[in-house]
Specification:
Largest sheet: 5 strands, antiparallel
Strand content: 15-25%
Radius of gyration: 36 Å
Strand order of the largest sheet: 4-3-9-8-7
Helix content: 40-55%
Distance between the termini: 83 Å
Length: 307
């Protein structure tokens, strides 16, 4: 009997040491039980202890960012739709280089550019000089300065001819990634989309752009020093201390009952912000009304996208 009990104790100890539980029932047949031989019989089984369930990891940082982005886009869509009620037609796009995301509201609608096409002419002029492995001439710089900073139409017409008019500007647009822009012989009637415009703007700052660093810096210099009476539009969405560039376009269109085309394209940058913004619109009753609309739209993108 002592030997039998020792065996049982030993088995139980091994089960506990092995991290298991001995489930025993009738471990020992009593010697007085009928049919018993006076010896004990081991009748238990070993079971593994239940393992703890794995702790859920939850969404990744990338997934959380995507969820937050979707919320912001939905809120902006709703705000723009509400604001658009009863207003002249407009579209807006924002390309955020920090996130790589592009937002667009009615992004594929085409509008006549008016003077915002002058950014395309400038980019093409710079590409043309690069291709010839030369710097801009003094005359070209003087014309570019007038074209961008003062929106001079005669200077634009001269440079438009230098870059090859329709064919030349179309070829440059293709190199810069514009796919929805149709150049007109009357440069101000070129048709484009906000999506194309933010692509063009991004080429003015992207290190992988076909535009060289010197060309990008020159374009920034001109677009960040426009005449005071033309410093409206995109810069209205900039905060104190941020850098803003802009080129605006305005045209009272005879084919639209002398209503106004009002467009604005530009960039807002600092250490934490790097966005390209384009707002295109038409059928405004007055120029100031159009200016107010494009600035309001630009500000709404900032409020809801939180760039």
């Amino acid at each position: 009997m002592r030997r039998t009990r020792n065996l049982i104790v030993t088995a139980a100890a091994l089960g506990i040491l092995g991290g298991s539980v001995l489930v025993a029932k009738g471990l020992l047949a009593d010697s007085g039980t009928a049919g018993g031989s006076g010896g004990g019989a081991l009748a238990g089984v070993f079971q593994d202890e239940p393992k703890a369930s794995p702790t859920p990891t939850g969404p990744s940082p990338e997934e959380l960012a995507a969820i937050e982005r979707a919320k912001r886009v939905k809120a902006l869509d709703a705000a723009l739709k509400k604001y658009a009620s009863g207003k002249p037609e407009f579209s807006v796009a924002v390309l955020d280089r920090k996130t790589g995301e592009t937002y667009a509201y009615r992004g594929d609608e085409k509008y006549e550019t008016a003077s915002v096409v002058k950014v395309q002419v400038l980019a093409c002029l710079l590409l043309t000089a690069q291709d010839a492995d030369r710097k801009l001439t003094g005359s070209e710089k003087a014309l570019a300065d007038k074209m961008i900073r003062f929106s001079d139409n005669d200077a634009t017409t001269s440079l438009y001819g230098k870059v090859g008019r329709i064919n030349g500007l179309t070829a440059c647009n293709k190199r810069l990634g514009l796919t929805q822009t149709k150049v007109s012989s009357s440069w101000g009637l070129t048709r484009t989309t906000v999506k194309d415009q933010v692509v063009l703007l991004s080429q003015l700052v992207d290190e992988k752009s076909e535009l060289s660093e010197a060309s990008r810096e020159y374009a920034h210099k001109l677009m960040s020093t426009v005449a005071p009476d033309q410093d409206w539009g995109v810069p209205a969405a900039a905060e104190d201390g941020e850098d803003a560039t802009v080129k605006n376009g305005w045209l009272q269109r005879s084919s639209e009952s002398n209503l106004w085309i009002i467009n604005t394209v530009g960039q807002i940058t600092d250490d934490d912000t790097d966005v390209s913004i384009a707002v295109l619109s038409h059928t405004h009753s007055t120029m100031p009304a159009g200016q107010s609309l494009v600035e309001k739209v630009a500000k709404l993108t900032r409020t809801h996208l939180k760039y």
